[in-house]
């Protein structure tokens, strides 16, 4: 039996998809990953075969830097980082505008490349990233059954009256005027309609006579899998989803280096783990404020700095690196300070770790709102929170109900690993 995994050339997408595929390899079956060259090392590390498939202009091997992107993509990335400095609405507006060109890059050409991979690999089963729109379009046109994995917050698949790109919820710390929100909603509707027109044009080129889509963002595969804990999802929204499986999380095995293990074993004080992920680590100004906030707490601190620059000096007993084994550190952490990316949220919850969330973009706002509503942490505006605010938030999380609530949900998630849920759902 052969499983084909289709992923954009981004580590944050491929890592959970590869984790879901691991049980096939462990069962002695073949796993082929179709992705770009930047994540070749990740594919090899999982022991899978890679076939080349480029689905977009950009890539990210683990820590993204604008200067490493192709011309045009570098400017777009810098524009995005600048937008995050102006707040939630400005960022969501920037991302909505960018969707006019980045989510369906060369859709007909990419769809035909996907079908060529399918012809060569002849898979028995297919797992595809939900955001790989051209790949899903190709599989749908060709009638290839596939599992469609929503790796971010479930709001990445709009239901009911939702509009893609307009968060269905956001934390109390984020305020916006009614007129600004109306303008954002109108823009997201316009982008939805333009995106759907582009999807339908590609559909006509690939399959003349096919039924056009009314909302391409709401299209989904044969089997919908959500990399998210059902316990955090609004039951009224769950009722609107198509047939689905909540995976809970897709946490990979990630052993720590010897020096990280030695650092963890050297002291029994609680550990604060800090990371803004592969993209938002570029906001070194916010990371600097977080580091200043943690100084007076007397806790041990591990910081994955990513691409951040201009950071202050820190105590010599802190663990500071551009990259750290997040899964291994979360197993020992008492609290995580995070941007609220879905991988970070689900990995923290699986380890039973509460959070201070500083969301910057996309579905991070909806994810942070869910954390706040479930009392699993505190959400703050990264552009407005002072060091004093951040220090108080960490204290409030550690001293409140969040640690016990996080431990409980972590126990549930570890009892039913997402990789096992995914395999069972796909085989069924």
UniProtKB/TrEMBL annotation:
This is Glycosyltransferase. Belongs to the UDP-glycosyltransferase family. CDD domains: GT1_Gtf-like (cd03784). Keywords: Glycosyltransferase, Transferase. The keyword Transferase applies. InterPro entries: Glycosyltransferase_28 (IPR050426), UDP_glucos_trans (IPR002213), UDP_glycos_trans_CS (IPR035595). PROSITE patterns: UDPGT. It comes from Nocardioides pinisoli.
């Amino acid at each position: 039996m052969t499983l084909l995994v289709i992923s954009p050339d981004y580590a944050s997408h491929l890592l959970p998809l590869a984790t879901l595929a691991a049980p096939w390899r462990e069962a002695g079956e073949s796993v082929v990953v179709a992705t770009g060259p930047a994540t070749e090392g990740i594919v090899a590390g999982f022991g899978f075969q890679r076939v080349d498939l480029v689905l977009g202009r950009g890539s990210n091997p683990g820590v993204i830097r604008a200067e490493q992107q192709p011309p045009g993509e570098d400017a777009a990335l810098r524009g995005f980082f600048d937008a995050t400095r102006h707040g939630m609405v400005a960022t969501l507006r920037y991302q909505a505008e960018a969707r006019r060109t980045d989510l369906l890059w060369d859709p007909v050409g990419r769809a035909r490349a996907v079908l060529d991979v399918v012809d060569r690999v002849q898979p028995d089963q297919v797992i595809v990233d939900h955001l790989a729109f051209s790949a899903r379009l190709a599989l749908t046109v060709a009638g290839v059954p596939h599992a469609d994995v929503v790796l971010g917050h479930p709001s990445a698949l709009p239901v009911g009256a939702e509009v893609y790109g307009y968060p269905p919820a956001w934390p109390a710390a984020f305020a916006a005027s009614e007129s600004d929100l109306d303008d954002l909603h109108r823009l997201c509707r316009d982008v939805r309609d333009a995106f759907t027109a582009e999807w339908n044009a590609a559909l006509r080129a690939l399959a003349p006579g096919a039924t056009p889509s009314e909302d391409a963002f709401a299209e989904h595969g044969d089997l919908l899998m959500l990399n998210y804990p059902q316990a955090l999802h609004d039951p009224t929204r769950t009722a609107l989803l198509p047939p689905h499986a909540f995976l809970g999380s897709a946490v990979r095995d990630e052993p720590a280096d010897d020096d990280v293990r030695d650092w963890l074993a050297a002291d029994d004080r609680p550990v604060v783990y800090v990371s803004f992920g592969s993209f938002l680590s570029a906001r070194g100004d916010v990371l600097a404020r977080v580091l200043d906030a943690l100084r007076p707490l007397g806790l041990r601190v591990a910081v994955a700095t990513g691409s951040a620059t201009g950071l202050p000096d820190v105590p010599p007993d802190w663990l500071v690196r551009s990259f750290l084994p997040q899964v291994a550190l979360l197993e020992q952490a008492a609290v995580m300070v995070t941007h609220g990316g879905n991988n970070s949220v689900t990995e923290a919850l699986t380890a039973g770790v509460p959070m201070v969330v500083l969301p910057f973009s996309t579905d991070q706002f909806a994810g942070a709102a869910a954390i706040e509503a479930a009392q699993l942490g505190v959400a703050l505006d990264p552009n407005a929170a002072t060091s004093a605010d951040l220090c108080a938030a960490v204290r409030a999380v550690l001293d409140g109900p969040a640690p016990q609530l996080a431990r409980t949900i972590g126990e549930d998630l570890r009892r039913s690993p997402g990789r096992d849920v995914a395999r069972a759902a796909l085989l069924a």
